[in-house]
Structure formats: structure tokens, C-alpha cells
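User: Okay, second chain of the day. Same drill as before: sequence in, C-alpha cells out.
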Amino acid sequence: MDPELEPFLPLIPKTDLTDPVTARENYAARAAAAPAPDTSAMQVDDHTVSADPDVPVRIYHPHGARSALVWLHGGGWIMGDLDTDNHFAARIAAAADTAVISVRYRRSPEHRFPAALDDTYAVLSWTAEHAAELGIDPNRIAVGGHSAGAGLAAAVTLRARDEQGPPVHFQLLNEPMLDDRQETWSQRNFTDTPSHDRDVISAAWRHYLGARPATPYAAPARADDLSGLPPAYISTAEFDPLRDEGIAYALRLLQAGIPVELHQWPGTFHGSLAVMSADVSQRQLAELTAALRRALAE
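Assistant: Same drill. C-alpha cells below.
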């Protein structure tokens, strides 16, 4: 474990998804304790995207930014909202100089797959259709997220390709949750890692899928064909059950001819990016936002 992260381990409670409502409350309380980001150089607005049902979003728009990132929070499709991801979304917008459209997608188990995917696709479509109104270039729209949100980002990118929908310029996948089968080495062996372990991820998949069989739009690792997708930045954490499926997805994208920047962070665990006092976390955020900024400048 990274020596700067190790002292925080006793302070990080193990996620318990037995009671989703309590899990959300605990997740929100931890997020509320994080320092507020500086948003003085951007306009921040809450908006409702007209869909069925409507989807709340929060738009972080640095002055003069001409590109956009549709951003999807983590939390196993169960926890998280616009407020819990405020610190990430604002920092990404500032560092990458891009408008960030943070999505409050419907959560499971009350709203199982494909509700979150439908919400995300509606926001992506709205962003492309309202690009002029938003002051952005419709050809410079990325999708991205963390954990379950990164899985959603990969899924909506697949759907946009398959349905010839809005053009996605880039996909930003931070510690993505991609494979319900949980057959990788890291999934089988990381049964007691900080914050998230194999059992927690199994519970998240059960809440998300219910009795439905997994499809590539639920678990993108199941997709047979990854050709024709946009370039990607994929970040993985060493002590994370999700590590190997993220690396495997990056390799499969490369084999399909898709440009990929893959960064495996030694000494880190799932979600340790939130420990912003650690040098490794600062480097993670800097690399992630630099990759996004480069991609959207092209």
C-alpha cells in the first residue's frame, strides 16, 4: 500500500449494501466531509433534461470552455448523486478546461438496469442536441465516470455506436466496473480489500441486474465487438477487485484498433483518489484530467 494512503485505512468503513438506503446516507455523509472545490472560475447550474422520466444534471462550465464531458458518479449504481460527486466534477472541469455535465441517473435496486443507462443516453443526446446553446463543439463531447459510473460510460459509448447516436469523442474510465462474471484474478483473490471487495461488488451487481441476464449494455466486458469506439483513458488501482477487468478491457480495445492510454496505479485501492492529500492521488487526478484535456483539444 502507498505509505501516504496506509494511515487512512482504519478510517475507511467497509461498504455494506444490505440496506441501500442506509448505504446512501453513509456515502453522502462521507462525501459531505470533503473540502469544497473552488468553482469561482466557472458557472455552475442545476438543470433538468427532458426525458422519460426527466434527468437532473449539474453543469460546471469554466469560462470559455468549448468541449464537454458527460460525467457519471460512482457508488455501485446504488449510492451517489450530484452532491456526492461535486468535488470530482468541479476539479475535472477546472483542470481539463471543459464543461462537465454531472448526471443524477436513477439508482438501483428501485430502478434496475437499464434505467441508469437510459438516463445517461438521454443526457448524452441532449448535450449533443443543445451544443450551440451550451457553447460547446458537438464534435468534442466525451463520456466518463468512476467505478459503476465508468461502467455506464463504457456502456453508453457502446450504445451510441450501435444506434448511430451522438458522436462520442473520448471515453474516460476511472476504475471501471465492467464484468458481472467476476472471474478475473483480482476478483477471485481480493476478498478483503479496503472499501470495496468481491462480496460488495457481487451485491452491487445483484441490486443492479435483479433477475435480468447481463448484456453488454449492462456489463461492457461481455461485448464481442469493440471496434469503432472512441479512444479511451482507463485507470486502475492495484488493490482493487476491478483492476484486471479494466486492464483486460483496455487490451481488447487496443486489439480492436482503438487508441488507449492505460494507467495502473501501484499502491492504491478502489476510490483512494478521494484521499487528495496523498501525492499519488494528486498525480492520478492530474493524469486523468491531462488526458481528457489533450483528447478534447484534438
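Residues 227 and 257 are 7 Å apart (CA to CA).

User: Thanks, on to the next one.
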